[in-house]
Structure formats: structure tokens, C-alpha cells
Design brief:
Layout lengths: L1 E6 L6 E2 L4 H6 L8 E8 L8 E2 L13 E4 L4 H4 L7 H19 L4 E4 L9 H9 L3 E5 L7 H5 L7 H21 L2 E4 L3 H9 L8 E3 L6 H9 L14 E6 L7 H17 L1 H5 L1 E6 L14 H6 L6 E4 L5 H10 L2 E5 L11 H7 L3 E6 L3 H8 L5 E4 L5 H13 L12 H4 L4 H17 L2
Parallel strand pairs: 1-3, 1-6, 3-5, 6-7, 7-8, 8-9, 10-11, 10-13, 11-12, 13-14, 14-15
Antiparallel strand pairs: 2-4
């Protein structure tokens, strides 16, 4: 059986979006001829990380996992340094060097948005002859903030520095990679525009997928500190996950449509409550609300609750399963591909989906013949989109309709199917020089 080293600095019990690919693949890789091992950062080293021990029950216990320690954030935060790579990168590199010296791996997969870790690929290829595959869950080099004028996380100066490093490091790392996968079909074209020598057809588009087993676990789970009282007589509409300035258009469409609903159907609208859970990344008590200001601007903030701090993964799934309906709002960046759409579907609740017209999520939703999907393309179309959502979703009370989607069309997006494709990419990487 071939061996793959999965580099995922964030890893259970830490709940982080960029570890989901690895977590979901681990139960299925051996069935595809691959013996996995994981190189991660110790959970106590992850600043503000949400720990969720139950996540460790979702992958085989016999999988070897090496967790490295570095410098704790408390020791560097006084200097404004929290970056995980700066604090733990040396330990990750040393542990990987030692592991590859002791054990022969056929390929390395870098599945993380800690992009500096990708620099270990060329290092290990040169030292050990091991090929590597890159997993683009976000762009490494991005013009989004410059193009939209949006303030980047951490401020413009820090982001400019990180992008200078990205523009220096990405070309040699990408050039030597033996395989590339991406969660969005737009990343291949983006890389080809940046680097004329890059073949866009070499990228395999591979969304995360979803594990039905997670929903089974969630059905037995109860949050220790519930955020929603589902027995209060209201109808609760739930969104879980990040929200940011890039989602203002979609949020405006949602809340403007609801404002119209209040005017046309006051009694029905009075029963609805919107909950946005885990919208930020800053650990408590930090962070700023991103949803409530938009709701306030539309005059509906009294019906909206925002819990900006991250919650455990199974808490989030619990809220999805118990909700009257689900709200899925997307970014104005058409490259944004939220993996949350798959657990949303498996929760089997009525859904309102508002995403950029060119988003991969719209393509997937159309394939599955999902009801309640609405598209936008820019700020100019907000008024018209809000009118459509009001007339076609709120007025007929679609939030009370049974959920329906094409289960056969969903099959390629399961965790098992995603892993089968991933295994094919790993196989190809071992044959490619």
C-alpha cells in the first residue's frame, strides 16, 4: 500500500475550516490504496482555536499523527505576532524532516491555508525525492482586496507584507508541484493568468464533500451552551460560518427582502428570527459584528441575532438540523466556494441560497435542482434580487416547505467520492516527475 503524508497544521481536536479535507478523507483513503499519516500543530499552539474532542471520533484512531509544538501565542502576542507559521513553522519543518528520514512516503499533500508550510514541498522533494500535491482552498496570491477596496483582515500593511511573501514563494512551489487540487474552478484560470507557464488544465476541481456520518453524530449531540431556544414559538432561520464585508450584497438582499415581507405579511414575518453563528475568527471577547450593521441599515435588526465567535462543529450541525430553515449567503467574490453547502443539504431543511451568479455553489445547487436559490452579480442588482427573494421565497412561505434535492446528483460530493478523486490525483503525482 502506498503512503501519503498529509500536512494539516490545523487538525482535530481543533475545529478549523482548512482541516476538513484531511479529516473527511481519512476514513476512506485506505479503501483507495493509500495509508495516511498526518503532520499537524499541537492544539494548544493554535491561538483562539475552538477545541472539539468529538472530532477525533470521526477518523480512524490508528492513523499516525505527529503534533508539533512551537512558541505559544502568549509569548509573542505582546510584539503583535500571532501567525501560526512564524511560531511553529520551525518545529513543523524539523518534524517533517525527521519523519521523512525515518519513513518512505510516496507523496505529500499540503492541505492547509497556512501557505508558508507549502515551502516544505520543494525542500522535501529535493532532499528525499518525494513528490507533493497542493490543495488550494483559498488563493495564495490574491487581488481581491485591491480590486474591491475592501479592508483586508489584519490591516493593509500586514496584508501587503503577506502578499509580497506570497508573490515571492508561490511560483517556485507551484512549478515543482506534482499535482494541484482546488475547491473552486476559478483558481485554475487565476493561476494561469498569474503565471503564463502554468497549465490550467492540470488543476483538479475538488470541493470538500460531506460526510453523512457527521449528521448522525450531530443528531445525538446537544450544545453545552445553547444559542437558540427552539421552543420559544418563533421560526428560526439559521446561518453558520464566516461572514465578512464581501457578503454585504447577499446580506442586503436577504434583509431587504425580509423588510418587504414585513410590510406585505406582518403577522407571518413577526414569527421569524434570523441567527448568524460563528461569523468571525477573532477569539472572545474580540471581533466585530458584520451582520447586524447590515440588518440595522435595512431596519430589521430586531429580528436578527449574531453570535460572532466560533462554535464547535457539532454545535453548528445541531443548529442546522433543528432550524426551521437555513440561510446560505455568499461572497461578492465569485471564486469563493463555501464547503458549508454540503452539510446544509444533508441537514434536509428548507433553504434560501443567495450566491454570486458565477460561484461554483450556484453550479452545484443547479445540478441538484435545489429550490430557493437566487443569484446576484453586483451591487446594482440588489433591489431586483431582493424583490425576487421576497416574491418567490418569503411570500409563498418556502421556509415551511419540505427540503428537496437530487440525491443522485449529490453522490459525487460525498466524502467517499471526494476521497476517490483525491486518491486518483495522488496516484498521478507518483507517476509524474
Amino acid at each position: 500500500m502506498k503512503k501519503v503524508l498529509l500536512v494539516s497544521p490545523h487538525f482535530p481536536p481543533i475545529n478549523a475550516p482548512d482541516m476538513q479535507r484531511v479529516r473527511l478523507a481519512l476514513p476512506h483513503l485506505r479503501d483507495r490504496g493509500w495509508e495516511p499519516s498526518v503532520l499537524a500543530v499541537a492544539p494548544e499552539m493554535v491561538e483562539g482555536g475552538v477545541r472539539e474532542p468529538r472530532l477525533e471520533e470521526t477518523y480512524p484512531g490508528e492513523v499516525p499523527v505527529v503534533r508539533v509544538r512551537g512558541v505559544r501565542a502568549e509569548s509573542t502576542r505582546w510584539a503583535g505576532i500571532g501567525n501560526l507559521w512564524w511560531r511553529c513553522g520551525h518545529a513543523l519543518r524539523r518534524a517533517g524532516d525527521d519523519w521523512l528520514r525515518r519513513e518512505a512516503f510516496d507523496v505529500v499533500l499540503f492541505s492547509t491555508t497556512v501557505f508558508s508550510a507549502w515551502n516544505l514541498g520543494p525542500r522535501w522533494r529535493q532532499a528525499r525525492g518525494v513528490p507533493y500535491v497542493l490543495d488550494y482552498q483559498d488563493p495564495w496570491v490574491s487581488d481581491y482586496y485591491a480590486r474591491t477596496g475592501t479592508r483586508p483582515p489584519g490591516g493593509r500593511l500586514r496584508f501587503a507584507l503577506s502578499q509580497w511573501v506570497a508573490r515571492r514563494d508561490e511560483p517556485p512551489v507551484l512549478r515543482q508541484a506534482s499535482g494541484v487540487i482546488a475547491v473552486s474552478d476559478t483558481y485554475a484560470a487565476m493561476l494561469a493568468r498569474l503565471y503564463p507557464w502554468f497549465d490550467a488544465s492540470a488543476v483538479k476541481v475538488l470541493p470538500f464533500g460531506a460526510a453523512e456520518a457527521d449528521l448522525v453524530v450531530a443528531a445525538r449531540h446537544r450544545p453545552s451552551h445553547p444559542l437558540i431556544n427552539f421552543e420559544d414559538g418563533h421560526q428560526h432561520l439559521v446561518y453558520t460560518g464566516r461572514c465578512g464585508p464581501d457578503m454585504v450584497e447577499a446580506l442586503t438582499i436577504l434583509f431587504r427582502a425580509f423588510r418587504l415581507y414585513r410590510r406585505s405579511h406582518r403577522a407571518e414575518a413577526a414569527r421569524l428570527r434570523f441567527h448568524f453563528i460563528g461569523t468571525g475568527y477573532a477569539p472572545p471577547p474580540g471581533g466585530e459584528d458584520t451582520v447586524l450593521p447590515v440588518a440595522a441599515a435595512e431596519g430589521v435588526a430586531d429580528a436578527v441575532r449574531e453570535h460572532r465567535h466560533r462554535v464547535p462543529y457539532f454545535d453548528a450541525l445541531h443548529y442546522l438540523q433543528r432550524a426551521q430553515a437555513l440561510v446560505a449567503v455568499g461572497s461578492n467574490d465569485r471564486t469563493y466556494s463555501a464547503s458549508k453547502i454540503f452539510p446544509y443539504l444533508l441537514a434536509r431543511r428548507p433553504m434560501l441560497l443567495i450566491y454570486h451568479a458565477d460561484s461554483l455553489v450556484q453550479k452545484v445547487a443547479a445540478e441538484m435542482r435545489l429550490h430557493g436559490r437566487f443569484a446576484f452579480q453586483g451591487a446594482a442588482g440588489i433591489e431586483e434580487a431582493a424583490a425576487r427573494v421576497h416574491a418567490a421565497w418569503f411570500v409563498p412561505r418556502a421556509y415551511e416547505e419540505a427540503s428537496s434535492f437530487d440525491a443522485a446528483a449529490f453522490a459525487p460530493y460525498t466524502a467517499a467520492a471526494m476521497t476517490a478523486t483525491l486518491a486518483d490525483v495522488l496516484d498521478a503525482a507518483t507517476r509524474r516527475t
